[in-house]
Amino acid sequence: MLSTRIGRRGQIVLPKEVRRRIKVQEGDQIAFVIDGEQVIIKPITQSLLELRGSVPVSGQQDFDAIRQQVIGQRAARDSQDAG
């Protein structure tokens, strides 16, 4: 088992062996997946932009309309949370 300390501002250093095993280096992004009492560290290897087109869809997609729909849904949810 490898361990590290949490710094004053909540920062941690991933041990070299962990960085090597998950193939990350300075500047790479990682995700923290919380599963009950466990936290899983996973490298983020692709951005959403890189995944664009990887899911087949029928017909043209209106991204501006989709974006506006998401903005509207978030605004509605935020107003419910505030009330």
Q: Under CATH, the topology of the domain at 1-46 is which?
A: Pemi-like Protein 1, Chain: D
Low-confidence stretches: none
Number of helices: 3
- Report the strand count: 2
Question: What is the highest CATH level, the class of the domain at 1-46?
Answer: Mainly Beta
General shape: flat
Largest β-sheet summary: 2 strands, antiparallel
| Strand order across the largest sheet | 1-2
CATH architecture of the domain at 1-46: Ribbon
Strand content: 5-15%
Helical content class? 25-40%
Termini Cα gap:
46 Å
What does this entry look like structurally?
By secondary structure, the protein is an alpha+beta fold. It is built from 3 helices and 2 strands; from the N terminus they run H-E-E-H-H. It has helices at 16-22, 48-51, 63-82; strands at 30-35, 38-43. Strand 1 (30-35) and strand 2 (38-43) form a beta hairpin. The longest helix has 20 residues, at 63-82. The mean pLDDT is 89.
